[in-house]
Every structure is written in C-alpha cells, then in structure tokens.
Amino acid sequence: MVTYATVDATVIGKILKKYDK
User: Fold this and answer.
1) Residue of 1, 2, 21 whose CA lies nearest to 11
2) What is the dihedral of CA 7, 10, 11, 15, to 10 degrees?
3) Which carries the bigger pLDDT value, residue 10 or residue 20?
4) What sign results for the dihedral spanned by CA atoms 12, 13, 19, 20?
5) Per-residue pLDDT for 11 more than 90?
6) What are φ and ψ of residue 19, in 5° steps?
7) What percent of the chain has pLDDT over 70?
8) Which superkingdom does the taxonomy of this entry point to (predicted)?
9) Is 4 in a helix, a strand, or coil?
C-alpha cells in the first residue's frame, strides 16, 4: 500500500534530483 508520505518523499526526491544539477 502506497501512502501519501511515500508519494511525497518520491516527489521531493525527484525534485531534488532535478535541481541537483
């Protein structure tokens, strides 16, 4: 079961990765 916390963590991770350049 995917929780909102997991989704938020994934989204945050993607955003950080995107702006990590």
Assistant:
1) 2
2) 170
3) 10
4) positive
5) yes
6) -95, 10
7) 86
8) Eukaryota
9) helix
Q: Region 1-21: what's the mean pLDDT?
A: 85
Question: Whole-angstrom Cα distance, residue 14 to residue 17?
Answer: 5
Cα–Cα distance measured from residue 18 to residue 3, given in angstroms and rounded to the nearest whole number = 23
Please tell me the pTM assigned to this model: 0.35
**At 1, which helix (H) or strand (E)?**
none
pLDDT at residue number 20: 75
Tokens of 13: 């991770």
- Measured CA to CA, the distance from residue 12 to residue 10 in angstroms comes to 5
